[in-house]
Design a protein that fits this description.
Layout lengths: L1 H15 L33 E9 L5 E8 L5 E5 L4 E8 L5 E3 L7 H6 L7 E2 L5 E2 L3 E4 L2 E4 L8 E2 L12 E6 L3 E10 L10 E10 L3 E10 L3 E2 L3 E2 L16 E4 L3 E3 L12 E2 L11 E2 L12 E5 L8 E7 L5 E7 L3 E5 L23 E5 L14 E2 L5 E11 L1
Antiparallel strand pairs: 1-2, 2-3, 3-4, 4-5, 6-16, 7-10, 8-9, 11-12, 12-13, 13-14, 14-27, 15-26, 17-20, 17-22, 18-19, 18-21, 21-24, 22-23, 23-27, 24-25
The structure holds alpha-D-galactopyranose (GLA).
The site of alpha-D-galactopyranose has 11 residues, from strand 24 and strand 25.
């Protein structure tokens, strides 16, 4: 029985890898000794690496939403739904091994449909802001939906966070995953070109949650995909100001009042923006107007996967490292959370109750020639990966 399930999962993987997906390794033949998926099953007390699919409610028009539960051998558990390809919960162990949900979200679909500040969502076609919802590409000016005062934010009125994605689960020798797919039509939210997108979540036995993005287009278009999880490694016991953050970024992109970059790349040295050495998030936040909501320019320059951020929560001992091949990362301290949302476990999400680290191209890139380019052209493949690595100390 177990064996036939595995074969089925590997078959799905075969299809998943057809397009040469990033990080989607060719399935290895089943290992009889694999405790999580082998025919003899796991040793007593050791969690089994597995995938489970359940219904997660319906949209008002009756469209069903599914949720996948990925569990690794250490019990780490990620739940991801087809609405917005959204990470709904993420159970991470503390230093004593106790698991707790460390992302903000809702227990049911309803909350996400009513009011979600992008909790756990896949955002696109272009994450972050485009000034006045306008950009010029190859001599043509495009006008996008505006949903953040006069600016375009996170893909517009109905971004990738608010659509239903197709989904297929799969297993690898040491990881379980779900591949989500979405076709964004030419003209959607004002963007040019049909954009075929896949997002793969992969949970490995070495406690990595990897997200691989891939996209192709039939017209030149800006693309900037990211994940908008809000983390809190106290598991909601208190705000995130006592978390210690390190960012591998000597510079950031200063912004105007509407959070649009001025175009400059300023050094962080000697300012409250400096996280090149570990600092408590709350230590200098009062000096930052409105709290942190800034794009950091990663020293790696993007291109190859490198360490971007490290977070340590001293009481629980939880550590998260973020590695990415993106050139930037948005550090956002949940400044707009105001206690009006009650989420998972009845928790009230007050200001600074979660933080986001969104790997990305710089905000408003299509309007800044000096920023790394974010235009995808027909014939090219957009590929990017972000890894969340969990440990304790
Ligand atoms: C991003 C932005 C913030 C805010 C949140 C959603 O992180 O940078 O300004 O809009 O999304 O509330």
């Amino acid at each position: 029985m177990r064996k036939s399930l595995l074969v089925l999962a590997l078959g799905v993987l075969g299809i998943g890898c057809f397009h040469g997906l990033v990080g989607c390794k060719k399935a290895e033949p089943p290992k009889e000794s694999q405790e999580s998926i082998g025919p003899s099953g796991p040793a007593k007390g050791i969690p089994t690496m597995n995938i489970k699919k359940d219904g997660f409610g319906k949209l008002p028009d009756g469209t069903p939403v599914d949720i996948f539960t990925l569990t690794n051998r250490n019990g780490l558990k990620a739940r991801i739904m087809t609405y917005g390809a959204t990470l709904v919960s993420l159970e991470v162990p503390d230093r004593s091994g106790a698991l707790a949900d460390c992302v903000l979200g809702y227990e049911s679909l309803d909350g996400y449909l009513k009011a979600s500040p992008y909790f756990g969502a896949t955002v696109g076609r272009v994450g972050n802001r485009i000034a006045k919802g306008k950009f010029t590409l190859d001599g043509k000016t495009y006008t996008l939906a505006t949903n953040d005062k006069q600016n375009h934010l996170h893909g517009g009125l109905k971004g990738f966070d608010k659509v239903i994605w197709s989904a297929e689960s799969f297993s690898e020798a040491d990881a379980v995953g779900v591949k989500f797919g979405y076709l964004s039509k030419d003209g959607e939210e004002g963007y040019p070109g049909n954009l075929a997108v896949t997002v793969v979540y992969l949970l490995s036995n070495d406690n990595e949650l990897r997200i691989n993005y891939e996209a192709t287009t039939d017209k030149a278009t800006p693309v900037n995909l990211t994940n908008h999880s809000y983390f809190n490694f106290t598991a909601g016991a208190r705000d995130i100001l006592g978390h210690e953050l390190t960012l591998t970024a000597d510079r950031y992109t200063p912004v105007d009042k509407g959070l649009i970059p001025t175009g400059k790349l300023d050094p962080v040295k000697g300012t409250a923006m400096d996280f090149t050495a570990p600092f408590l998030i709350g230590a200098r936040i009062a000096k930052v107007d409105g709290g942190y909501d800034h794009n950091y320019v990663l020293n790696s320059g993007g291109g190859a996967v490198a360490l971007a951020a490290r977070i340590y929560e001293p009481e629980s001992g939880r550590v998260m490292e973020i590695l990415t091949d993106q050139p930037g990362i948005q550090f956002y301290t949940g400044n707009f959370l105001d206690g009006t949302i009650t989420g998972t476990g009845g928790r009230v999400y007050k200001q600074h109750w979660g933080f986001c680290l969104e790997t990305q191209h710089f905000p408003d890139s299509p309007n800044h020639a000096n920023f790394p380019g974010s235009i995808l052209r027909p014939g090219q493949v957009y590929r990017t990966t972000t890894i969340h690595k969990f440990s304790t100390k």
